[in-house]
Amino acid sequence: MDSPVMESITQHLVALGVSVVRFEFPYMAQRRLDGVRRPPNKMEVLQEAWRAVYKEVRAQTDQPIVLAGKSMGGRVASMLADELQISALVCAGYPFYPARKLDKPRIEHLLRLRTPTLIVQGERDALGCRDVVQSYTLSAAIAFEWMAFADHDLKPLKRSGFNHEQYLQRAALSIVDFIKVHVG
Fold first, then answer.
1. pLDDT in tens, 69-115
2. What is the number of other CB atoms lying within 10 angstroms of the CB of residue 169?
3. What's the N-to-C CA distance of the chain in angstroms?
4. DSSP string of 42-111?
5. What CATH number does the domain located at 4-182 have?
6. C-alpha gyration radius of the chain
7. What is the average pLDDT across 20-29?
8. pLDDT digit string (tens) for 153-171?
9. Dist CA 148 CA 69 (whole Å)
10. Contact indicator for 110, 97 with CB cutoff of 8 Å
11. What is the residue extent of each domain of the chain?
């Protein structure tokens, strides 16, 4: 939750008037405590963590809630978006397929997703490059903000003429525009 990408996007969103709540999945919280790298929890555990955070936030506000996540956090959020009946969903660096396994897409639930969704994705993301992702027939509820020359962390190549921070600011602006349209 405190990676440089998450820190920067959060700062930009807060500066643009968006309230943000961040959390860690159990395996990451444990890593913070003992420093041991471990694989992610099973999907059921990850989903329960999201549900618990949603329930806690919902108890504190009657305002619309937008789930958002980076990489696996976005994937888990996308699996729960319709169930939780949230207002909108934002995913950054979505992991459409495992690294180097283009033939194993993880998109089944994205075919029928009903929640308005924005995916901010680097065109050269190793887990979802533009050429491959555009070949999928995904739900019409999903919109994309493609970041030219960017990788999984939305970091652009130097030849783009932009730096990482500028791209993260652009991502935050796109997210705010999306929220204004779909949440009000």
1. 999 999 999 999 999 999 999 999 999 998 888 889 999 999 999 99
2. 18
3. 26
4. PHHHHHHHHHHHHHHHHHH--S--EEEEETHHHHHHHHHHHHHT-SEEEEES---S-TT-TTS---GGGG
5. 3.40.50.1820
6. 16
7. 91
8. 999 999 999 999 999 999 9
9. 20
10. no
11. 4-182
CA atoms of 40 and 35, how far apart (whole Å): 14
Q: Where are the alpha helices (DSSP H) in 18-62?
A: 26-34, 43-60
> Positive or negative CA dihedral for 45, 142, 15, 66?
negative
Would you mind telling me the total number of residues written for the chain in this entry? 184
State mean pLDDT over 13-22: 94
Amino acid identity of residue 3, one-letter, is S
Is the C-alpha dihedral spanning 27, 31, 6, 22 positive or negative?
Answer: positive
What are the residues whose beta carbons fall under 8 Å from the beta carbon of 51, sequence distance 6 or more?
80, 84
- DSSP-derived secondary structure letter, 165: H
pTM metric for this prediction:
0.94
**77 to each of 33, 49, 148, how far by Cα in Å?**
25, 10, 25
Over the stretch 37-60, which tens digit does the pLDDT of each residue have?
888 899 999 999 999 999 999 999
Judge whether residue 1 has pLDDT over 80: no
Residue written as token pair 């930009």: 12
